[in-house]
Design goal:
Rossmann fold, 23 strands, alpha/beta
Length: 597
């Protein structure tokens, strides 16, 4: 049976068997107040822009300065927004994104012309993939200088404007302000975008010559309104009927992070088994008896065992796209009667498994689960004979030889960092997040961050600074030595006195690539690089650092790092021969033909 969803008056979602289109427009509250409106006779354009950003809830601006954006920089420094000067624009963008996920406030990334903009693009693409709310505020070349080889010229003569300066696959909204009169429309578009239930990444570019122009129009006071779609009673009734027909499971993703308590109540009321995506770790407690395991990349065999032996009638999917990292599109993960898929994006349900029966629901996850709690009868999620497989976890005794096995390191991180502190744990792309996804267990939301969407190296070696800043507390990044050499902001953390911690898996190679190329049959690929003492490097920048070469020293180093009030780097010499739990990724590559066999 095929279903389509559409939105009726009042932003309620109706689901019918007709081929209707989804139509949804978030509301925009614009309040005019003569006492609070911006006075154009007193403000330059960039001063008005900064005041607008303040009114939209921006607390932090991350970036790197430059001559082309001097008035922007000065206006930010004179505002209530805390300006954080980073060492590289990509690091600033990753840190900005993670500050958003830490406190929920929209955030600004600022750059100058030319390479300032292009350096930030990787982090901004990651922000779009992850669903953050970030506004890039940049300078561009003045109109009179375009096409004349201006310094760091930023114009259609020198840069691809189709994506960088216009709305599209990179930015939800992008605009170059060419006159002060445009600001009112810009303000409305930003306000509307920040009210979206999902992420919003925007680019506002201002020519250098226009930045100090006096504003010749007035701006209203702007208020961001929550525009999350809610399900209708008709949809809830239908979902309750479908899920009541037999045992069902719940598949939880990162988009369900705001509904952790409600999901737990629903699972306990119905007896449903629960699994989560790699980014969804901790939303449902991983020590709960109804938790099956993590799916997809570096996931648990217990999930496959459950799906093969108990195979539920349906799966309720909450806030995950079921993409390659979450499912590898494995047919084993398709239940007998398909999915009930809840997401705020109408384009998500049915895409990962196009041949599977899917009942799509356009709704905020929390609103949906709250409604379902009132309609679902108890103990329908599983049969009386259901036995949920145990997640595999084997404690490993430390050894005295040099180099540290990753399993031993993860076991210590579990006890000292995850269970012994309230720090958020962030795992960088590569073997770092493979070990973290598979080995660490979280029992509450917001404690684990995995960047397996865009998957950029350098994401958390810099993002950890933004997370620690916004949380006003400890944040711990588990990273590889390749990522740490690529792009880190230890020096920035020292300057800002941010208590970030880096745990570096140091094996002097891109080890995921090294191990993966061997599995794929490519034997002559060089992935190694000269060894680095990251503890010494950290101390040279004013941070604290410890080098760990044996497993007996791991716990002491972690305890010192967690207790420290300063930025701290733990340089762990890792045994490179231990194969990370990444075989599902390599098998996917083999199926795609990326093999020499």
């Amino acid at each position: 049976m095929n279903y389509k969803s559409h939105v009726t008056a009042g932003n309620t979602v109706e689901l019918t068997k007709l081929n209707t289109d989804v139509e949804f427009a978030p509301s925009l509250d614009v309040t005019y107040n003569d006492e609070e409106r911006f006075q154009h006779s007193q403000l330059t354009l960039v001063e008005a822009v900064v005041k607008m950003l303040e009114s939209l809830g921006v607390r932090y601006a991350f970036g790197v300065s430059g001559g082309g954006m001097a008035p922007i920089w000065d206006s930010l420094e004179s505002s209530s927004i805390q300006v954080l000067h980073f060492r590289h624009e990509s690091g600033a963008a990753f840190a900005a994104m993670e500050s958003y996920f830490a406190d929920g406030h929209p955030v600004v990334v600022f750059t100058t012309t030319g390479p300032g903009i292009t350096n930030a693009l990787t982090g901004l693409l990651a922000a779009r993939w992850e669903g953050a709310k970030v506004i890039l505020l940049s300078a561009c070349t003045s109109a009179s200088q375009r096409g004349r080889w201006a310094i760091q010229e930023t114009s259609t003569y020198t840069m691809p404007s189709a994506e960088i300066f216009t709305s599209g696959s990179l930015f939800h909204y992008a605009n170059t302000i060419e006159c002060t009169e445009e600001l009112l429309q810009v303000a409305r578009r930003l306000t509307l975008g920040l009210g979206r239930p999902d992420g919003f990444v925007a680019h506002l570019s201002i020519p250098t010559s226009l930045q100090t122009s006096l504003l010749n129009t007035s701006l209203p006071q702007l208020t961001v309104s929550d525009s999350s779609p809610s399900p209708s009673k008709k949809i809830i009734t239908e979902c309750a009927k479908l899920l009541s027909e037999g045992p069902f499971a719940i598949w939880v993703g990162f988009g369900a992070r705001g509904a952790a308590a409600e999901i737990r109540q629903l699972a306990q009321k119905t007896g449903a088994a629960v699994m989560c995506s790699p980014r969804g770790k901790g939303i449902f407690p991983e020590d709960h008896p109804q938790f099956v395991g993590v799916t997809g990349f570096a996931g648990h065999k217990s999930v496959v065992t459950y799906m093969q032996e108990e195979r539920p009638l349906r799966i309720l999917v909450l806030g995950t796209r079921l993409g390659e990292f979450t499912s590898f599109w494995s047919p084993t993960m398709v239940p007998k009667r398909g999915f009930v898929h809840v997401d705020i994006d109408p384009d998500v349900p049915g895409v990962a498994y196009p041949s599977a029966e899917t009942f799509p629901v356009l709704s905020d996850v929390k609103m949906f689960v709250q409604a379902m709690l009132e309609h679902m009868p108890e103990s329908l999620g599983r049969s009386k004979t259901l036995s949920i497989p145990q997640k595999e976890h084997t404690a490993i005794l430390p050894r005295t030889e040099s180099s540290v096995r990753p399993e031993v390191l993860m076991d210590a991180i579990q006890r000292i960092v995850v269970e012994g502190s309230n720090a958020v744990v962030m795992a960088e792309s590569g073997n770092s997040f493979a070990w973290a996804i598979h080995s660490l267990r979280f029992t509450e939301p917001g404690r684990c961050r995995i960047c397996n969407g865009f998957g950029a190296m350098g994401h958390f070696v810099t993002g950890v600074v933004g997370a620690a800043l916004a949380r006003n507390g400890k944040a711990v990044a588990i990273v590889g030595d390749g990522a740490m050499l690529m792009n880190n902001e230890v020096n920035t953390a020292v300057k800002l006195q941010i208590p970030a911690v880096w745990i570096v898996l140091n094996d002097a190679r891109y080890n995921m690539c090294d191990q993966g190329m061997g599995v794929l049959g490519f034997k002559s690929i060089d992935t190694k690089f000269p060894p680095t003492d990251f503890a010494m490097l950290a101390r040279s920048m004013g941070a604290d650092g410890i080098r760990v070469e044996t497993e007996s020293d791991v716990e002491i180093a972690l305890e010192k790092a967690i207790a420290s009030l300063d930025p701290f780097v733990i340089d762990v010499v890792i045994d490179p021969t231990r194969l990370a739990p990444s075989m599902s990724r390599f098998q996917s590559l083999i199926e795609q033909g990326a093999t020499q066999f």
